[in-house]
Automatic annotation (TrEMBL):
Biased composition (Polar residues): 642-653
Organism ancestry: Bacteria, Bacillati, Actinomycetota, Actinomycetes, Micrococcales
Protein's name in the database: Calcineurin-like phosphoesterase
Comp. bias (Low complexity): 29-49, 75-91, 629-638
GO molecular function, one term: hydrolase activity
Organism: Krasilnikoviella flava
Signal peptide start-end: 1-27
Protein origin, superkingdom: Bacteria
UniProt xrefs under InterPro entries: Calcineurin-like_PHP, Metallo-depent_PP-like, STPP_CPPED1
Length: 1328
């Protein structure tokens, strides 16, 4: 935290400080035409089709509007200089054919698009467009499920939800023609589905709803921060709403800054490249180059699209219209017939075997793998196969002339003993092909016992049989396809929806299409190119996909699958009544299919050709596809291939280099279409990181660096860099005399231990060096490391006292961000390799950098950097190059910075020693299950144990308050469980009252310490009106005002009379003053304004925000880095944390799990903030561990939710501005909550931490002990010794009472060289 600036930048009220999402507006090329820009009130009827649903917008997408963060709504003004380049479609490099919409949209308010040209000529038919704005909002961790039919209404225009959202910020494009100057109304509707209890509405939370226009964020001062949508379970939660209405005041006419668009028939343009330019009124331009390629009438439809970039196998098709009479005569690549891998072509072969009396059960998902492709085993109608000959159709395109590998695989199902394989016998296995012969495997057995017995009980049955069958049949490299058009696959989806946000796939004869629609309780239809189908046998697979960043597959059931070609008919083979797909929860259900293989016989004429071209056989670059019709017309397409992984363009060490001294590893990669990620490097098979030194310890001889690379297309490769080590020796050690030695008697014996990697002889060279000290010193403080040679504000400092060993130091100023010292050292031109050495002290949590001024680049070069040392001096040494000499002067800067990094060593689990910190804060949260168990359990013994868990925490805090220096206690909500909604009967009212009684009783134990308890959603009816009444009965202002009378140097205040829903506590500890603000669940704009005002009023105090629903749970093992929870996280951060630079700590609960966010730069002053979620309520402990193994009929191993018996101690070291965090359960006498997480998400580092905290005491400084440039001048002597031995020389002719510098260099027989740091000695005084 920093002291407050005298003039604080803030709006006069929170309502005026509207914060926007990061959005980009408008989306060019999709808006309908609008009235001319001079029309102040364009007619919506002239710009929008009658269909209010606006189907032309492709769903609700993220990040599509320009950021206007912190903007106050206001009228746009025209730019006085060229504005930002307009948006322009088609995109640069696009290949065009047929009718295409050209559109340009403004990027700067008041700077409309005035012209679009093609090859310098004005584009005809241009119309003015008003573009789009964006409605943006956050959706919480409870998803808004598209299957429920949620929707929006914008000024009467309905917008359907097209995909499911969860834990994200969503942006909905809204046509400006729908918006008006003045008041705009948006309705948010929760959709409903029929269920066993009636209509059940989707439950989700929407927060931070904003309307973003070009140059303006619409005013929304009357809207709530968040809305809890839905109804619980069929109406169980009356605090939720099925509809929420928000309004926005738009000051300027929406779409007043217009774009231009026109529908262009590209056949009016010549085939080839064209230059498209869009220009705004101010002269800003966007230029794209497009390529037109229109085929003549009658030519086949050729795919893939023109300009497709691809790798690997690419399916290429050419087809005449399916409903016509024509055909395709040829399909070529670069003039040669298009050819794929040799297969048996179209048609079907048969794999057959006899099944014994133990059935091949469909539910087990038994299958074949034919050259790696899966084919399911099932009988007609999906029935089991038993005591019969099974015949499996194998598409000929999966078989090839020569060797074919076919595996028979026993599938599994979930059972009481785990995954159980199907058990059956397969005998007389045979493969038959229509046109050719098959040689069976030499090792083919008469029969095979498949499966595993009962969950592995059989030692003779096998899970899989893999055999090689040799086929002698004609090879086909291309095969006939159906005509061009649209085909469909449709099926009925059950009540569990097929979710469009999962990566479900439809695969037709090996070609994939993403199923991006959501279907529930009805028929879904997927359209695909008809030319993917073949005459005769076709394979269609439906594949259950995973959700993004999730292990879970989509679960759904399909039935009545119908394939409809563009012409002709299709008949499904061996159809089952239905197919259940998915995996339960991340693989919990083995009974559902991950994919379903369906087969169809298609009766339709072949009007096209297909080839699966292996593009690896082609050179990288552009290739021409061509297809000719049977009547002579030809279509062409450009196909660009890239099968090459990134190459190493340069490296240190370079390929073929001889390494004579340590060099930092560096690798530069190049790729035609983009490198993905960083290079992964190994040296002789061992991982090595970029920047690590290469050379030391490397034996003489040849070595190999292997670099694993990947590009955006998925090409990967391992590139080799061959290097030769000269045998780089270790840095010489055991230097004698030790640096800084005084009173040395001449002559002096210099010695050092030298060693090489090969244990051969090593030569030590000892040399004298000049010690060049600074002639001028300046120092200062800054917000960032200075970039200029002479930083502004720097003041002169004494240059004397900077020699090593003189006992003098130079301390920098105390800085909020960066403290620096700048030194000028004069060097002689003959000194070719001067070495800069700095020694001094800095806090271990700060970073010190040694920099030199580059006279060529006019910038500071970082020569070396290190964290401060906890013990002794920090030493930075680095050579200065020729570029660092400024007419005989080397300019050196040493800068200390505060990284505010979460990388401090936490040490062992257990509380910090009170002697090592100044004060502590106890944090507990979400004790609801403990309060509930203390009331609802059947026996007094059970209730006592549940209550003892709560009492254990508060009793421990009270008993240890003095010893552990506990200055404040924070409970961040959900004191109880059952006040989440208004109680509906006397029994529930009694339960709620009992729970509050328990919580109040134990919180009273700590009322002698300054403390706070905020209301969670289970305490205040989820934020509904009247929901905090019971909370205030037990935790209202009267309670805390009375308690505060006994507090020392502390006081309490509530936000309004009689209501503690929001409150603050002022307390002092460790010589510092604090303001802790508590915010109940469901924060309103008025409440946020109040909290903002409290932090501003007490801006000289260190600020703590305590709230309930602020952070989501981390998904990382160490519990780091998670986003905000809804509904309160994002608005509290934007309107309370970010504007107040004194807020340094946020404490939260609500979401099951933990999170630690260390944010180094928050708000305008860029202060550090630590955010902590510590909710253990869902962590489970065995009943036997808490004494319930013999009480209440529990199984001792049964896991019970006693996780809230853990709380945190936050222990503060004021001088170091660090906070030690420990997590402890008095009930269990245990440090280690992570072991009880039922999802095993975390390790011990999530609960045992030392973190930086931005208290007012947090400053940055450094102390210089010495700064000098060392320049070797003459050789004192050399000695060659065995590796690991000590070399020594005699140094004579030394003056008395004089300081000398010397360096020792080790050289191996192969030429490897390593130097030690310069050493200093001072000779004895007196006369000879």
């Amino acid at each position: 935290m920093r002291p407050k600036p005298s003039g604080r930048l803030r709006a006069s009220s929170l309502a005026a400080c509207v914060v926007a999402a990061s959005l980009a507006l408008p989306a060019a090329g999709v808006a309908p035409a609008a009235a001319a820009p001079t029309d102040p009130d364009p007619d919506p009827a002239a710009t929008v089709a009658a269909d209010d649903r606006f189907p032309g917008f492709p769903g609700w997408t993220e990040g599509t509007a320009a950021s206007t963060h912190g903007k106050k709504p206001g009228k746009p003004t025209g730019p006085t200089k060229p504005g930002t380049a307009p948006t322009l479609t088609p995109k640069d490099g696009t290949h065009l054919e047929g009718a295409v919409r050209f559109a340009a949209g403004p990027s700067t308010a008041g700077d409309p698009v005035g012209r679009i040209t093609v090859d310098g000529a004005d584009l005809p038919g241009l119309e003015s467009t008003t573009g789009t704005s964006a409605l943006a909002f956050d959706v919480g961790s409870n998803s808004a499920d598209a299957a429920f039919g949620n929707y929006l209404v914008v000024n009467g225009h309905r917008v359907e939800q097209e995909r499911t959202w969860v834990s994200e910020r969503v942006s909905v494009p809204v046509p400006n023609a729908w918006l008006v100057q003045g008041t705009n109304t948006v309705e948010i509707h929760a959709g409903g589905l029929d269920s066993s209890c009636g209509v059940n509405f989707d439950d989700f939370v929407v927060s931070e709803v904003q309307l973003e226009l070009l140059g303006e964020t619409a005013g929304d001062t009357g809207n709530s921060f968040g809305y809890s949508m839905g109804d619980g379970s069929c109406g169980s939660n009356t605090s939720y709403v099925k509809e929420a209405t928000v309004t926005f005041e738009v000051e300027n006419a929406p779409g007043a800054t217009t774009g231009l668009a026109a529908d262009v028939d590209t056949t009016t343009l010549a085939n080839g490249s064209h230059r498209v330019v869009a220009t705004t009124r101010s002269g800003a331009t966007a230029t794209h180059t497009v390529r037109v390629n229109n085929a003549p009438v009658g030519a086949p439809a050729l795919s893939p699209e023109d300009g497709t970039l691809t790798r690997g196998v690419q399916t290429v098709t050419a087809s005449a219209p399916a409903d016509g009479d024509g055909g395709t005569a040829s399909l070529t690549v670069d003039g040669e017939p298009a050819a794929g891998p040799a297969t048996l072509g179209d048609g079907v072969s048969v794999f057959a075997f006899d099944v014994g009396t133990n059935a091949v059960e469909t539910r087990h998902q038994n299958h074949l793998l034919v050259n790696g492709t899966r084919l399911d085993l099932r009988g007609e109608g999906g029935r089991d196969l038993v005591s019969e000959r099974a015949q499996v159709g194998v598409p000929n395109r999966l078989l090839r002339p020569g060797a074919n590998t076919i595996a028979l695989v026993a599938g599994d199902v979930s059972s009481s003993c785990g995954a159980n394989l199907d058990d059956f016998t397969a005998s007389d296995l045979a493969l038959s092909v229509a046109d050719g012969t098959v040689t069976p495997p030499e090792d083919l057995q008469a029969s095979y016992a498949m499966g595993d017995g009962s969950c592995g009980s059989s030692t003779t049955a096998v899970p899989q049989v893999e055999l090689t069958w040799t086929v002698d049949a004609p090879a086909e490299t291309a095969f006939p396809a159906l005509g061009h058009g649209e085909a469909t696959v449709s099926f009925v989806v059950g009540s569990n929806s097929l979710d469009g946000s999962a990566q479900n796939l439809l695969r037709v004869n090996g070609v994939e299409r993403r199923i991006d629609q959501t279907v529930v309780g009805g028929r879904g239809e997927i359209t695909f190119p008809n030319e993917w189908l073949l005459p005769g046998w076709n394979e269609v697979d439906v594949v259950a996909g995973a959700f993004e960043n999730d292990c879970n597959l989509d679960d759904f059931t399909i039935s009545d699958v119908v394939l409809t070609p563009a012409s002709g008919t299709a008949q499904q083979q061996n159809a089952a009544a239905s197919y259940a797909l998915g995996d339960g929860t991340c693989g919990s259900n083995l009974n559902s299919f991950r994919q379903v293989d369906l087969h169809f016989l298609v009766d339709a004429p072949a009007r096209g050709l297909r080839a699966d071209v292996d593009t690896a056989d082609l050179e990288d670059g552009e290739h021409e596809l061509a297809a000719a019709s049977t009547t002579g017309e030809t279509a062409t397409r450009t196909l660009e291939t890239d099968n090459t992984a990134p190459r190493v363009s340069s490296s240190t060490p370079a390929d073929g280099a001889v390494i004579t001294s340590a060099v930092p590893l560096a690798v530069e990669l190049t790729d035609a279409h983009g490198v993905v990620g960083d290079a992964q490097v190994t040296l002789d098979g061992e991982a090595v990181a970029l920047g690590d030194p290469v050379g030391p310890g490397l034996p003489a001889g040849e070595h190999t660096l292997e670099v694993v690379t990947a590009d955006s297309l998925g090409n990967t490769a391992t590139r080799e860099i061959a290097v030769t080590s000269a045998g780089v020796p270790d840095v010489p050690t055991d230097l004698s005399p030790a640096t800084g030695t005084t009173g040395a008697q001449a002559p002096v014996t210099l010695s050092a231990r030298v060693a090489g990697p090969d244990k051969g002889n090593v030569t030590a060279t000892f040399a004298q060096a000049d010690v060049l000290l600074p002639g001028e010193v300046r120092q200062g403080a800054a917000d960032a490391v200075p970039t200029e040679l002479n930083p502004r504000g720097a003041t002169r400092a004494p240059a004397k006292g900077l020699a090593a060993g003189d006992g003098k130091t130079l301390a920098s100023p105390q800085a909020d961000a960066v403290a620096y010292q700048r030194f000028d050292v004069r060097v002689k031109t003959r000194e070719e390799h001067p070495v800069v050495r700095w020694s001094g002290t800095a806090d271990p949590a700060r970073e010190v950098a040694l920099l030199a001024w580059d006279t060529r680049a006019k910038a500071w070069d970082t020569l070396a950097a290190s964290r401060g040392s906890a013990q002794g001096d920090t030493v930075l040494v680095a050579p200065a190059g020729p570029q660092h000499r400024d007419r005989g002067v080397v300019h050196v800067m040493v800068a200390a910075t505060d990284p505010f990094a979460d990388d401090l060593d936490a040490g062992e689990e257990g509380f910090a020693d009170p002697a090592d910190y100044d004060f502590s804060i106890a944090h507990l949260t979400d004790t609801q299950y403990l309060s509930e168990g203390a009331v609802e359990q059947e026996t007094a013994e059970e209730r006592e144990i549940w209550e003892s868990a709560y009492a254990g925490v508060t009793d421990w805090i009270a008993a240890n308050a003095d010893e552990r220096k506990i200055a404040f206690v924070s409970h961040t909500g959900d004191l109880i469980e059952n006040n989440i909604r208004e109680p509906q009967d006397d029994a529930m009212r009694a339960q709620v009252t009992g729970e509050f009684e328990v919580s109040s009783r134990h919180q009273a134990t700590i009322d002698g310490i300054p403390n706070s308890a905020v209301a969670g959603n289970h305490d205040n009816w989820s934020g509904a009106a009247g929901g905090a009444d019971m909370y205030n009965r037990y935790f209202g202002p009267d309670r805390y005002e009375a308690a505060a009378e006994s507090w020392e140097n502390a006081e309490y205040g509530s936000w309004r009379e009689g209501d503690s829903s929001n409150h603050y506590v002022l307390f002092s500890a460790g010589g510092l003053d604090f303001v802790a603000v508590g915010m109940g669940y469901g924060v309103t704009r008025e409440e946020a304004e109040w909290a903002d005002g409290i932090f501003e009023r007490y801006s000289d105090r260190n600020g703590i925000l305590m709230t309930h629903a602020y952070l989501a749970a981390s998904t990382q093992k160490d519990g780091r880095d998670a986003g905000f929870a809804t509904p309160d996280g994002s608005p509290l951060y934007k309107y309370v944390v970010e504007p107040n630079d004194n807020v340094f700590l946020v404490l939260a609960g609500h979401v099951h799990g933990v999170t630690t966010n260390v944010k180094p730069k928050v708000g305008q002053i860029a202060d550090g903030v630590v955010e902590l979620l510590a909710d253990y309520q869902a962590f489970t402990v065995p009943a036997g561990r808490v004494g319930l193994g013999t009480i209440g009929g529990y199984d001792p191993a049964e896991r019970l939710r006693f996780g809230a018996s853990y709380f945190r101690m936050l222990q503060f070291d004021v001088d170091r501005a660090e906070m030690s965090v420990d997590t402890y359960s008095p009930l269990l006498d245990d440090f280690g909550a992570d072991e009880w997480d039922p999802d095993a998400r975390y390790d011990s580092t999530a609960d045992n931490m030392v973190l930086p905290v931005d208290l007012t005491t947090r400053t940055t400084s450094l102390v210089t002990d010495s700064l000098a440039v060392y320049a070797p001048t003459r050789v004192i002597g050399t000695r060659t010794v065995a590796s690991g031995e000590v070399a020594s020389v005699r140094w004579d002719r030394l003056e008395r009472d004089t300081q000398y510098a010397w360096v020792v260099t080790a050289t191996t027989r192969g030429g490897g060289v390593t130097a030690a740091e310069p050493a200093l000695l001072t000779t004895a005084g007196g006369k000879r």
